[in-house]
Design goal:
By secondary structure, the protein is mainly beta. The chain contains no helices and 18 strands.
């Protein structure tokens, strides 16, 4: 299946979590062995000047009261178990700060601008069971930043 999620946050200058995507550990009563492969991303900034950056990080620590929601199903046990689910993913848009993690992809846009949809399939970015991918944004001047991401799931 192909899935998508988007989010935006306003008044961003320092690196801020725009959204996080998590691959569950348990899926409909069995250990999840499926992978999430990112297939596309688009990033936008509303500021009149400056530069905005979008970063993808795996294994980072996010703070600011993250609260995961199932993409399609019921999420239990701290966000790592999905039941009655059609997707192995859950997402969070409430987290704000991030530390650590591995930077695996980044892109920049001039303010105001929107990146074209970037094909991520050719970059082979996968999220394994139990992993969280966080997408962050930062801007040299205060800006509303938006991101859209698509992925496929090998279940």
């Amino acid at each position: 299946p192909i899935w998508a999620i988007d989010n935006n946050k306003s008044a961003v200058t320092t690196e801020t979590v725009l959204l996080s995507l998590q691959n569950c550990v348990n899926y409909n009563g069995v250990a999840n062995r499926g992978a999430i492969q990112l297939t596309g991303i688009s990033f936008a900034s509303s500021a009149a000047s400056g530069v905005a950056q979008c970063r993808l990080k795996i294994g980072a620590i996010v703070a600011g009261t993250p609260s995961y929601t199932a993409v399609r199903g019921t999420l239990t046990v701290g966000g790592v178990t999905l039941t009655s689910a059609n997707s192995i993913a859950s997402y969070d848009t409430a987290a704000t700060t991030i530390s650590g993690g591995d930077l695996i992809f980044s892109l920049s846009v001039d303010n105001p601008d929107t990146s074209p949809n970037v094909n991520l399939a050719e970059h082979n970015i996968f999220i394994s069971p139990g992993e969280v991918l966080s997408i962050t944004g930062a801007s040299t001047v205060s800006s509303t930043l938006g991101v859209s991401v698509t992925w496929s799931e090998d279940i």
